[in-house]
């Protein structure tokens, strides 16, 4: 018992001496000077590291990265000069299904709002000073400082907010938009039908159809409204005797290309309307672009887009 108390007393004296030693050390100015030196060392070290990082970023930004164009373009880019297509409305990026019920605005309101917002965006950006009228132009765009003004009213003949873009009936409308590829120019050979388009509007053809034979029947009549429709409407001419459904494809004019990151650039698109689409059946539809330098692969989604309709 006595030895145990003696050991505890020795430990307590050891702890007590250590505490007293640390207290005396804290009273010495040299202790605080060493702490300040250590802090100054680490502060300078991290400042140097941050400064080197900022310097490397500035050098990469000014010497390796271009302000107007990305570092990798053309075939060096991941896109490999292969433009794709996008479809609107698509309020949910996780699904390509467009489903609504005729006569129930709550079911198709989100699609109408998506299309209306897209039109309003084009209208707000159609008054820029760097936009010019290219309707009389035939070839490609050679003025890379300005962009061609896109006629937003090309779909007003059959697709507009007045008729809820056809979603209030069995005539839904969609937008097929050609995605941007820097420096890409459509190419056509001498036998290409694009160069001898019946109405004199050469450009990229965009065509839609059902995926299988049953879908081709259920999809109804497919009608295309493109820039030709807008030009005829501006001339107070009837676009087509049957509402635009005699066309086999829509056309995107050549003078919207190439895209060189022009300010106020507007992606060209066409309206597609499905007259008499079948109800209560899932319909798979695919659209693709036709040009000699556009590879179309439906399985990989190259040069095409696929979506579904389900009208209740």
Structural class comes to alpha+beta
> What characteristic shape results from the CA principal axes?
elongated
Tell me the count of domains: 2
> Going across the major beta sheet, what is the strand order?
2-11-10-6-8
In DSSP terms, counting alpha (H) and pi (I) runs of 4 or more, how many helices? 5
Helix content: 25-40%
Task: Please report the distance between the alpha carbons of the first and last residues.
Answer: 93 Å
Q: Mean pLDDT, as a whole number?
A: 77
| DSSP strand tally | 11
In the CATH hierarchy, the third-tier topology of the largest domain is known as Immunoglobulin-like
Question: Unreliable segments (pLDDT under 50, ≥5 consecutive)?
Answer: 191-200, 234-242
CATH superfamily of the largest domain: Na, k-atpase alpha subunit
The CATH architecture of the largest domain can be named as Sandwich
Describe this entry's structure for a reader.
- With 312 residues, the chain is α+β, with helices and mostly antiparallel strands.
- The protein folds into 2 domains: 2-64; 75-311, Na, k-atpase alpha subunit (Immunoglobulin-like), CATH 2.60.40.1660.
- The protein is 30% helix and 19% strand.
- It contains 5 helices and 11 strands; from the N terminus they run H-H-E-E-H-E-E-E-E-H-E-H-E-E-E-E.
- The protein has helices at 2-26, 29-64, 105-124, 213-218, 227-234, and strands at residues 85-88, 97-100, 131-132, 147-148, 173-178, 203-210, 221-225, 250-253, 269-275, 282-290, 304-311.
- The strands form 3 sheets. The chain has a 5-stranded mixed beta sheet with strand order 2-11-10-6-8.
- The longest helix is centred in the N-terminal third of the chain and has 36 residues, at 29-64.
- The radius of gyration is 33 Å and the shape is elongated.
- The N and C termini lie far apart (93 Å).
- Residues 191-200 and 234-242 have low confidence and may be disordered.
